[in-house]
Amino acid sequence: MPRLKKPISKKLNRDDDGSTFATPERRWKDACKFVNEVWPRVHEAHKKHEGQVWSYTDTERRTIIFMMKLMVTHTYGVAHLQREKRLALEARVAELEARPELRHCGIWKPNTRYRECNLTTHRGGLWLAKRANRSRPGESDAWALIVKSGHAQ
User: Fold this and answer.
1) Which of 136, 137, 142, 149 is least surrounded by Cβ atoms within 10 Å, i.e. has the fewest?
2) What is the per-residue pLDDT across 37-52, written as a single tens digit (0 to 9) for each?
3) Are 125 and 152 in contact (CB under 8 A)?
4) Total domains in the fold of the chain
5) Residue 93 and residue 32 share a domain
6) Which residues span the domain enclosing 114?
7) Domain check: are 50 and 66 in the same one?
């Protein structure tokens, strides 16, 4: 997130604990409080001059510029937070998609390579492959018996 060259207000760039840079949420909260205190004065000045050609006072002009910079800063802060959330979600989706999925492969067949999480039936039982293998279910620890019936052991 871009930082302004000069702090608009020292109060806005300090957190409660005195650290130099507050979080975007904290800066936004402080800025809203500041704007709520100052903007009514600007609005009153505008109402006094309504229908006339007039210019802002230096304080009013600085307040308006401050608010515009604040909106830009807030927009960048929100975009940065949204990017962080999106990247975290993309990483989570990639992790979930990398997991092996359960797949039923029918009746066990010799010389067939079974992947992790493949399910097959053999001698009346349902077997789960704990890792990739070509062995017969029940003859190695590569298989886990899920449902026992018939002659499965």
Assistant:
1) 149
2) 766 766 676 666 666 6
3) yes
4) 2
5) yes
6) 103-147
7) yes
